Amino acid sequence: MQCELSAHLDLSRQVLDELSAFARERGLDAESCRAMELAAAEGINNAIEHGCVGKPEALIRVVWGWSGEIFEVRILDPGSFAPGDPRQLLPNDPLKESGRGLFLMASLVDEVQHRLVDSGHELTLRKKVGAAKPRASALEQLQQAVETMAADLHVTYEDFSALLRLSEDLATASTFEAFVAMACRRLRELLQVESCCSLRLLEDDGSLEMIYGESQRPVPLRLEAARECVERLVIRNRHEEKVYHCSALPLEDPLHATSGCAFADPVLFQDKILGVFTVVQPKATQPFSERQANFVRSVSDFLGIALTTLSLQGERSARERASRELEIAATIQTALLPREFPENSNYRIFGQSRSAMEVGGDYFDVLPVRNVGVLLVIADVMGKGVPAALLATIFRTAVRSRLDLATRPGLLLSAVNQQISDDLYRLDMFITAQVAYLCYETHRLFLANAGHCPVLRLSGNGPAQRHGIQGYPLGVGGSIRFKEEVIALDPGDRLLFLTDGIFEIENAGHHMLGMEQLAADVPNLWKESPEQFSNALFEYLNIFSHSAPSTDDRTVLMVQRQG
């Protein structure tokens, strides 16, 4: 029997199928048939890759048949390559392609012969398999085909059932390690040969850490990124590797300590390399069949799914936990802000804070002082989120610990700054703040400013005036002394304390509102009570920004003298 093919690797499969069908029809056992097919595949590949170099139109002729008890395959190509004894050609580094094919052919058949003929190079493969059986009649062939199909269907059903059970294991396993153990047990059932499995996962530093291994000999837990071995080759090339003789591998390769053959397959998910799954058959004399290799590939796919699912579940749990923690933090922060404001016949006070995130760094407080006045505090911690909220809470605690200085806001700010400055400096953060004491009897406001934006004062129908002697923010130095400004309030006067998130918003054209524009528009917005003005102000900001999400916390504190 013979056929010809052009020098294209994808055409060899058809030739090999015809060779195997010919051999099986004449009684060749499955093991010998597989060996001849693998040896012929290597021979054809060599003929294409070496014998037809520079000759893309060349033809390769493959001839096979029986000679007594010898099954013979001859491969003729137009090249002139003729190596020596292939059994002496095992390369020093079996991970390299060069030499492996020749050594493989010599290990699969009884005789490998190279010779040069007039038309080129001829490779002959011979294996003693016993005499060929007479070819069956057409009826017998049909019966054999039906029996083979039935057997194949039975095997396919069993394989499908095993994989289905594997998917059930994936859904019910309590841990990833438990699923790996289940998967390896299912795989051994499918392979129907003694085998041991291992799974190494790729770490961020490029090393491979074994998280599951079945072996009678100790195996290293980690393979460093620079260490060369079969499993690292799989990671680098993202391609499976078959090892026909583990003992022939370099001594430093973990698989060298085993015997038999091995199959290492990359564990992937959507083209992301996660690790390598290796199966060793210690007592095998023949390499993995394609059916066995498919089982290993299927288990590798399941492992990739399980790993990714585990990672996604961890990320989802972390997000849910973080979200819950933020909700708790937001609830705590809201609880720390004033919900009720001191009542006085001459003054109405109201404050409101809206965070850009779940929690923020803005803070305000209103603290009665012995029924003779009130302490007003507003602050803005650099940054946003949980760190800023924690520092705002620290600032609140520090202020409340020094209420003995409530009537002297400059001294109070100096004391608070001395108390928390070192911590702020270590964190490379700062706080801007204003502290004001309003005396009900004298109608005077004592104002101290630590790098915060001005207070806007509305008096009569005139434009808003700015107050607040500029000072250093808290945290830039521990010995700062803050000055006080005294403001006399007339009946109808209104004060607006605010943070920079109010006037630093931008419109759709990325134009900032700015303090000038805000000061000009506030008199038109504040017509009623502080509560109504607060609502009008936030609606004004929403219209200006075209309802864009806020990028900074926004806080206001308002004081209005009634009479």
Q: Helix and strand layout, with pairings?
A:
Elements: E1 2-6, H1 12-25, H2 30-51, E2 59-67, E3 70-77, H3 100-108, E4 111-117, E5 120-128, H4 138-172, H5 176-191, E6 196-202, E7 208-213, E8 222-223, H6 230-237, E9 241-243, E10 261-269, E11 272-281, H7 290-336, E12 347-354, E13 362-369, E14 373-381, H8 385-400, H9 409-427, E15 431-439, E16 444-450, E17 455-458, E18 465-467, E19 484-488, E20 494-498, H10 514-525, H11 530-544, E21 554-561
Antiparallel strand pairs: 1-2, 2-3, 3-5, 4-5, 6-7, 6-11, 7-8, 9-10, 10-11, 12-21, 13-14, 14-15, 15-16, 16-19, 17-18, 17-20, 20-21
Helix pairs in contact: 1-2, 2-3, 4-5, 4-7, 5-7, 8-9
Describe the overall structure.
It is a single chain. The protein is of the alpha+beta class and 563 residues long. It folds into three domains: 2-128, Histidine kinase-like ATPase, C-terminal domain (Heat Shock Protein 90, 2-Layer Sandwich), CATH 3.30.565.10; 165-312, Beta-Lactamase, CATH 3.30.450.40; 337-561, Phosphatase 2c, domain 1. The chain is 38% helix and 25% strand. It has helices at residues 12-25, 30-51, 100-108, 138-172, 176-191, 230-237, 290-336, 385-400, 409-427, 514-525, 530-544; strands spanning 2-6, 59-67, 70-77, 111-117, 120-128, 196-202, 208-213, 222-223, 241-243, 261-269, 272-281, 347-354, 362-369, 373-381, 431-439, 444-450, 455-458, 465-467, 484-488, 494-498, 554-561. Helix 1 (12-25) packs antiparallel against helix 2, helix 2 (30-51) runs antiparallel to helix 3 and helix 5 runs antiparallel to helix 7 (290-336).
